[in-house]
Amino acid sequence: MDKLAILGGTPVRDEKIYYGRQWIDDDDVNAVAKALKGDLITCGPFVAELEKRICEVTGAKYAVAVSNGTAALHCAMIAAGVGEGDEVITTPLTFAASANCAVYVGAKPVFADIDPRTYNIDPDSIEKHITDKTKAIVAVDYTGQAVDHKRIQKICDEHGLTLIIDGAHAIGTKYDGKGEGSIADMTTFSFHPVKTVTAGEGGAITTNDPELYRKLHLASQHGIVRNPDEFKHEAEGIWYYEMQELGFNYRMTDFQAALLISQLNKLDKFSKRRKEIVKKYDEAFKEVPGIIVQEEIPESDTTRHLYVIQLDFDVVKCTRREFFDALSAENVQPQVHYVPVYWFPFYERMGYQRGLCPVAEKVYKGIMSIPLYPLMTDSDVDDVIEAVKKVVSWYKK
What is the pTM of this model? Predict the structure, then answer.
């Protein structure tokens, strides 16, 4: 039978609304046009200006802009000295890049379980997975909420590990008043269109360590040095440069950087609106039997990238797929973030098996992301709430 007929015929809204959408205005368009009309459209002044702006936003001492969030993670692995035979602990409830970055450098991803309330990596599980091969931890700020920095940093200090925060969701988030990006050894960001601010594509790595900054810059720029003070050999002329390490072409263009600078100028506005929507969702769903709301630690002042609801199958008598399809039929299009990384065929071929992280697997089976982005009107938010409640009500019958 047709889903619309099952749920009463007329959908909550006429126009489909999706889980995320970028906000591009005339200021953004003009910023890109200015960059395109300049003398340099890559390796130019806007990238340097962007890196300075990212430091201002996060509180970090150094920033390296790169082509995307995955490139940022790869560079962080290289700068941390992770390599063949090493192990990197991360979470399974994330985009694949958080684990793939270890594989890129010949290391083994090790998956720790998550906290069942916050969905962030569980420090107790991290401790259980540390071996003499562990080199680094990649902790993900899932949905934008900061991880438990104090406990995870303590673990890293005790075992001599590098802490890398995958902050792809978390630009604008603060932990104990400090900007995410200024706390860990390195923090990576993504500027994909559905993130809080966008460069179309793009990423960045922040750090407070000058030696890590040097390594990050080399890793993202072919390993090439152009400063004569850093040359190993005498310069033959002004054209001379040296490739001192094996690096990659992970440069960001100037017009992407110009777009992102313009977007960062609106970060406070974007963050405020996201928080307003999250508050409204929390208030609407916290008393709805059948819906579990993600909890937040008091230390995290979160700019939420995703709003995730979890179904309580003791109350809602349906499958996640049925709920997902019914919500979509109401023209509220959810998404699922994320399939546990080690469930993918690539990782199965590496020997990973289901059951490694039972909490993450249980949470995954009941979660879905509902629309959250600054362009949403109050009416849009009300429609999403009505649709969720309508589907819950139906499947409680």
Answer: 0.96
